[in-house]
Amino acid sequence: MLHTAQKIELDHGGGGYKSWELLKEIRRILKCKTEWKNCEDDAAVLPTETLMKTGFKLGKGNLVFTTDAFIVNPIFFPGGDIGKIAVCGTINDLSVMGAEPLGISLSIVVEEGFSKKDFLQIIKSINKVSQKAKVPIVTGDTKVMEKGKIDKIEITTAGIGTAQNIISNNGAKPDDFIISSGDLGDHTVALLSERFNYKTKIKSDCKPLNLEIKKTSRYLNACKDPTRGGLAANIVEIAKKSKVKIILEEKFLPYKKEAIALSEFLGIDIFSFASEGRFIAAVSPKNIKKVLGILKQFNPKAKIIGKAEKGKGVFLKTNLGGLRPIEMPKGKLIPRIC
Amino acid sequence: MLHTAQKIELDHGGGGYKSWELLKEIRRILKCKTEWKNCEDDAAVLPTETLMKTGFKLGKGNLVFTTDAFIVNPIFFPGGDIGKIAVCGTINDLSVMGAEPLGISLSIVVEEGFSKKDFLQIIKSINKVSQKAKVPIVTGDTKVMEKGKIDKIEITTAGIGTAQNIISNNGAKPDDFIISSGDLGDHTVALLSERFNYKTKIKSDCKPLNLEIKKTSRYLNACKDPTRGGLAANIVEIAKKSKVKIILEEKFLPYKKEAIALSEFLGIDIFSFASEGRFIAAVSPKNIKKVLGILKQFNPKAKIIGKAEKGKGVFLKTNLGGLRPIEMPKGKLIPRIC
């Protein structure tokens, strides 16, 4: 029986009896169907018979592997929580590489005295998004730190996927269109509004991208999800690694009016606002119609935001016709959002 | 140029320019030879041509996946540091499953103001053990938390490996010998001595086990590394899952005299003392000589510590002939050691 006043105790992370009990509760919640075995052992096991069923061929495919640490404040925010963002973040890092996620590992470090109800709420949220994305949580670790040694909770996820073809961020070509899979920056708006008690209807855009990228991946020459550092850091990385110039158009900017207003009010560059469920990509002119057609089924706001050409650097073409350089964010960034 | 007074700043984790700079320094240090590609991308990629070269066959092998979070106090201790232990922990979790590690992910959460020299020292230590074990660090994440929001540094590693045959912890059979790959508990002794300023020559046993387990894995019916919860938690788990009784013999106990003295002085059960570079295993009588012969090449203290038989529970047969039950540690455990 769970009493809402129950707290996480140090012994829940000690490796003894209490650790086992907590682990059993976590496992009862995580129910995504999986063909992984030994999930209660030191490591999870995926028999390669399962891989063969997915059409995976040795010598033609790739294993893809990623990790991310999540330390969000607040832990619960409009549109998600630290658990949802941790799972989405790893699914999305695999997806933007063109990989289909096979399984996720879940490592939690939690502060002694943390509400057990909130803890299990986070596990439920993890389960929900794992089921929605059809990516199972297959192995994990839970550690408890003494009070004051960590700020509530930190989650690190890692993920494995397979890809026939890798989408790198160095594949954008001159004449490619630059697209966004929807409005950007809503995750930062949601977190800032919660932290500064600012009223907004904007919720975090946090969501898994694997299904929409799977349907379009063969047409994406370069792809990234603009999380930390926002559009600025990620579009600069694509331009730099692909050795192209990218011109974004102010009139096509993928931000909600309210997001822009908030960025101006706080004096924070809108281009550094992060998303946790959007991607930007470079697409050849011959495929652009097909790609946007598919993406609009997932989000009607998917659109072209600019174009690549020969040269270097990233610029914003303003409505007045001027060119303003967009650079990798330097100096103080916005409060940590993931 | 590194100035020793340099500190980790919040912007080193912000996703902007400073993050890039720190990442470049980390990458310059991590030099283990790897066939993984795209290590600077959102995820690392292992072309399956590489897997084929290792003799890996689809339909006959298994992918193995694990993760662990490390929050050690002190960060530097006799015989290792948080970086070494994080890499060894994940290599060892793969190894005790019978898997050969392919690559490790490295996620670091560090406190603003942490010494940059110490940070890079930890990265160097990670590189050293990764090279020794021949397991590359292939992908990672670095986040910085505001001062006071984390206790110095936390590292989470995840790892992928492949195994033709899985060693589970449910495979011990009646008549199997129970062995230890060396003296146990030295990791806890080293950490306690550092924390309580107690003088000892004992160093942490922290080391990668992949090479010695690779040479013996086909003969191991069950295998675990006695980290958190020590021998007590891990031998109980093997007995329970394998549905056998296990009798350990006091006269063969794998602990140094000084470790036992410390455990008695502090009133902490020696069976809960942790190791970070030892394994325990169940081995059939017909293979025991071969296995010990191999293991003694790695550590002359490898030895038989007990035997499995029909029944249930774990007992210590004392020198006087009595039987004392050994149970999963309950209640307050020793200070966190990994």
The CATH superfamily of the largest domain in chain A appears as PurM-like, N-terminal domain
Query: What is the fold-level CATH name, i.e. the topology of the largest domain in chain A?
Result: 60s Ribosomal Protein L30, Chain: A
User: Could you tell me the mean pLDDT of chain A?
Assistant: 91
Shape of chain A: globular
CATH architecture of the largest domain in chain A: 2-Layer Sandwich
**How would a textbook summarize the main sheet of chain A?**
7 strands, mixed
Oligomeric state of the chains present here: homodimer
Largest interface: A-B, 89 and 88 residues
Which CATH class of the largest domain in chain A is shown? Answer: Alpha Beta
**Distance from first to last alpha carbon of chain A:** 33 Å
- Taking all Cα atoms into account, the compactness measure Rg of chain A is 21 Å
User: Numbering strands along the chain, what is their spatial order in the largest sheet of chain A?
Assistant: 9-11-8-12-10-13-14
| DSSP helix fraction of chain A | 25-40%
Integer tally of domains of chain A: 2
How many beta-strand runs of chain A? 14
Residue ranges of chain A: pLDDT <50 for 5 or more in a row? none
* Fraction in beta strands of chain A: 15-25%
Tell me the structural class of chain A: alpha+beta
Query: How many individual helices of chain A?
Result: 9
List SSEs of chain A in N-to-C order.
HEHEEEHEHEEEHHEHEHEHEEE
